TrEMBL record:
GO molecular function, one term: methyltransferase activity
Presence of keyword Transcription regulation: no
Organism domain of life: Bacteria
Stored InterPro entries: Methyltransf_25 (IPR041698), SAM-dependent_MTases_sf (IPR029063)
Gene Ontology BP annotations: methylation
Identification of the protein by name: Class I SAM-dependent methyltransferase
Organism: Undibacter mobilis
Domain Methyltransferase: 47-132
Keyword terms: Methyltransferase, Transferase
N-terminal signal peptide: none
Coiled-coil intervals, chain numbering: none
Amino acid sequence: MSDAAHIVDLYERKAHDWAADRRRSGRFFEQSWLDRFLSLAPKDGAILDIGCGFGRPIAAYLIAQGFAVSGIDSSMTMIDLCRRDFPDQDWRVADMRTLDLGRRFAGILAWDSFFHLTYDDQRRMFPLFAAHALPGAPLMFTSGPEHGEAIGNLHGERLYHASLAPDEYRALLAANGFAVIEARMNDPDCGGHSVWLARHTEGR
């Protein structure tokens, strides 16, 4: 079985370890990007957080800014932690690759989650992003800076990442009705993340 195929099981088994690491780090380098993302979404709208983890710090920040959150994650343990800490929000166990929530959102976020998919699974996500986006909704996700695979480490186990080339992401966004607002590779102010911020233009 490939490293990519182990992601769902790995995050479920390491859910409490990952959450503890995130709490201990105390870092919140995502805030400036989240503020830009939220500035494009109506205040009364709901945000879809794809790969929400245990809800901290990102979903917690969205909620604190007054937004409703629908969070999905493949890990039941992660979702249980979200439901415990934020019982008024909508949390679901789901695989992003087959996402079909039957509704559209004012913003879609896939931070440090989408890049665990294989190349082909990433390509197939763009119609799903579009199917869940209201006209004008921002979409933000993280990727790698160039086409390739990378293996990280999560408490002693191999952690798969993949990225398409920037030109292919641009083409996929355009083909699915998203206009790129900014793409910044290896942002030094965001822990070296490569960040994409786009906006859904279909139906406007």
